[in-house]
Amino acid sequence: MKIFTTILLLVCINLSFSQEITEDDGLHFLTGVAISSGTYAFVYSRTQNKSKAFWYSLGLSTFAGLGKEVYDGYIIEGKFDTSELLSTVLGGLTASYTFNIFTGKRKKKKQEEKKLVYQRL
Length: 121
Description:
Elements: H1 2-15, H2 23-47, H3 50-75, H4 82-102, H5 105-120
């Protein structure tokens, strides 16, 4: 069974080479990460609200990607590339979600430690 699964996996990997990710899509992903990270840090430092920071950072990276593609597609007579838009949005989602997971952990630990100290007194 292990041999059959391995052969099936190798066949699937060989067939997936047709799905290429261009260098430009990678740059759009990194741009989405950068915009979303900066926005999340700024909004969270001002509001201390994880939900607002998540949605604002995701929204701003989406808006930036959409604006760039509209500019390329309709203003400079280029092509509206949905894969570039999707790359920017996924970069923003990745950064926003990652920050959302790891933000506020220290604050909770400090509150729990204070409770333990007060319970001992």
